[in-house]
Amino acid sequence: MTINQLEWQQLLPNTAACTGQFEREYRREPLNIAITQPRLQKSLHTFCHQHVTASPFMLIKAVDSRAYLSLIHDTVKNIQPVRSEVFGSRYEINNAVISRVDAQSKSDNFAATDDCLYEEWLETEQLFGCLRKHNDSYTLEPGLIHKANGGVLILSVRTLLTQPHLWFRLKQAVISKRFQWFSVDDSRPLPLSIPSMPLELKVILVGDRYGLGELQELEPELIEQVIYTEFETDLVVNQDEDIVTWCEYLNSVAFHYQLPSIDASAYPSLINIAVRKSGDQEKLPLCPQLLSHILSDATPFAMPAITAQSLEQAEQEKLWRESYLSEMVLDDIDLGQVRIETEGFVIGQINGLSVLEYPGHPRAMGEPSRISCVVHLGDGEITDVERKSELGGNLHAKGIMIMQAFIAAELASDQQFPFSGSIVFEQSYGEVDGDSASLAGLCALMSALSQQPINQQIAVTGSVDQFGNVQTIGGINEKIEGFFDVCNSRELTGSQGVILPLTNIRHLCLKNEVVEAVKAGRFHLWAIDHAQDALPLLTGLPYVDENKPSIIGSIQERITQVAGNDRNRLPWALRWLNWFNRG
């Protein structure tokens, strides 16, 4: 049995031991991904220096935004081999006749102008160039592939997937090492014949997993041959030097985006904000867009450097701007429009925790939900009302079935289980999915079977397996804060709290109100690793005990009573058998 009542120090990342690292003088240097992305750095180096017979394509799993493309571009520029020859051509138009010769200097109209270029979104003419006619004269305009000829072109996978004709033409040109001119309008051929030109180009394609997956389905053989790597989203913190690395990277981001310097007092707050984003106390995010937004939000309050106070002001203002919807949700609970019990003991009812994500809203919100269970004599079937009404998703249904399997194993008997029941999320009017409420549902069902009431001052979150082990769930901070806000608006009693999975401790990074309440003993968090640890906290009875009342004992006693009553309900002609049973 493992029940850990958490101390307030466990609710935030431990930054006290890093004071020395925060006091260091960090130089404001250009952003260099090599310190945080060694795999990406090495892969780019290999790609830029590989033999000419290797695949001219490379895939990078990353956000295909300008910020990421720019970082990859800067890295490639630093590691590319120096070019001495001129790549490209010179086109001349005389009397509506176009001729081509190899470029002799960089001033030629179709000579490469750069050895590495990138673009987030482009159209056909931007990529491949075009032939334009004005009055009776013609001009040829180069595209990106001409300007980067002999070098590297960095493009978004999303751009090519939404415009498949771009991808097929680009692939053909890169693989054949020759660019064939074509008309942008398929219904109108080129008015002049344009000689093709040699092309020596490498292409880096950047996209998320879904985009790369679509490309893999489209080009399975091509993808097998390319170099693949990823922009790592987080820095794993295993030692003090990792904190130093992150602080250096953070200062480089500030320098890159021309943001104010960072004061030593700001680092603990920055780590707290970062952990909220990564969802793990041992991981710090590396997304340059995210970090620059955090710093830029605090810039108006920075005088002159970004401090802990300026970050706090920025976070409070941002929370205030975005809190209208969460305030309306809390008001509905306070007014009784959404029923949530936070006092007393009730059989078969429990406070589960969920995370709401509304379309278009930037912040996920935690909200308690009432889960209820009723049981009656039956054939052992547990009805999932959400599933029956087609409001429950597949993961939710899986969680309910796992919960039933655990109960069947715990109450193993040669006889058929004599009870049926139903479980429902009260006042849920949309689809319910995920298995993070399976522990709460299990506790409600055990309460209904044992007829032992549950303390309504405690909320529960966590998923369970068939053996009752409590497993990690997502959105733990939002869920705890959602229940805390409800309890706080009704006044904290000192007995309220949340039961959560033991494995979720490393994901905790709670707001100051919750931390202070736990510190003062007015709110509690209990971390458990098995379902049998939750029920004693909720009911005050041991899970199983041969010498005094317990949850399992109460259920077995009730089953025995039902079995005895069944014997008394024998048909009239066979009731004489009960006379022998009394003996």
UniProtKB/TrEMBL annotation:
Sequence ranges assigned to domain Lon proteolytic in this UniProt record: 344-541
**Organism, per UniProt?**
Limnobaculum xujianqingii
Domain of life the protein comes from: Bacteria
Q: Could you provide one GO biological process annotation from this protein's UniProt record?
A: proteolysis
Question: Which residues are named in the active-site annotation?
Answer: S436, K479
Family, per entry: Belongs to the peptidase S16 family.
Substrates-to-products reaction catalysed: Hydrolysis of proteins in presence of ATP
Please identify the protein, giving its name as recorded.
endopeptidase La
InterPro entries per record: AAA_32, Lon_proteolytic, Lon_Prtase, P-loop_NTPase, Ribosomal_Su5_D2-typ_SF, Ribsml_uS5_D2-typ_fold_subgr
Q: Which Gene3D superfamilies match?
A: 3.30.230.10, P-loop containing nucleotide triphosphate hydrolases (3.40.50.300)
